[in-house]
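Researcher: Hi, I'm a grad student and pretty new to this. My advisor asked me to get structures for two proteins we've been looking at. I'm not sure of the right format, so I'll just paste the first sequence and hope you can take it from there.
Model: That works fine. Here's the first sequence with its structure tokens right after it:
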Amino acid sequence: YVGCLLHPDIFAVAGYSAVIMTTEAHLPYFFGLFAAVGAAVLLGCGIDAFLYRRLRMAGATQATTFLASLGLGTAGVAILLFAFTSSPRRLPGFPTKVLSIGEAFFSVADLTMVIVSWAMIGLLLLFLAKSRYGKAIRAVGSNAEMARNVGLNIDRLYLLVFGIGSGLFGVAAFLFTAKNVAYPTMGILPFFMSFTAVFLGGVTSIPGHALAGLILGLAESLGMLVLPGEYKTMIAFAILFVVIVIRPEGLLGFRRG
């Protein structure tokens, strides 16, 4: 999970890639999505190949990896600020129609996010359960040393995992930019919210992550009915604190050992 500290930078690069492809190159939205996912995957795989793999080979501690990630992440934000300035970039043209079901109102962008998110979760679970590489990833997650001993290429699987995770972040960045705007630190809040969902749902459970994300989204939306918008993030962390105190392994996680 230390390696995920660079995902905010990957998120921002993906968002800017979508903006450049659609607003400056004047290409359809499909190319913007392709650019966002492609940039995210390339950057994510490059980070793993040129940073984390070298740290693993050197036997670096978690603290060393954390500091390396923090330093590179900070440099990444500075580079984005230098390249794009702090001015937000929009991704115009995405449908802004507002829909309603009873007293609930939501935009086309909100509905698209929900559909795409659950579709990606389903495809990811199917990949991990049915594909050869998915089973190998699960084996490494259970016991990396044993997986190495039976002949699995650990470095290749780490690269694959980082590529898949970065690609999913690329899709999320495209949708986020379509609804909001692109700016250098745009990935920080989504990163912390996703990290909160991981621990809330249970580190070992992808369905738990999806359930936690749904709970956090509903809690924030309902909480904004009685609290100002700036307290939205506080609601998520309050829920995480209560659940971790009551059930440290998360909602659908399990105790190891």
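Researcher: Oh nice, that was easy. Here's the second one.
Model: And its structure:
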Amino acid sequence: AQPDAERIYRDNCASCHGASRLGGTGPALIPETLSRLRGDALTTAISQGRAQTQMPAFAGTLSEGDIAAVAAYIQR
């Protein structure tokens, strides 16, 4: 079954990045603000977190497929 990227986002990302992805304690996650985090850089940021920020690593929480699905979701 295909991962439910919207549910994954809602459950793991929305509390910091906002339900509409327009930001909160974390930055907005819309295509215009993700220009430097494309492809592998984006999935790496989700998997490993981001140093010097409040972005946690999700590799221990989400599967690779879930991470790929939510990365694709936030790039739309």
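Researcher: Is there anything I should tell my advisor about the second?
Model: You could mention this: Helices lie at 5-12, 14-17, 40-48, 64-74.
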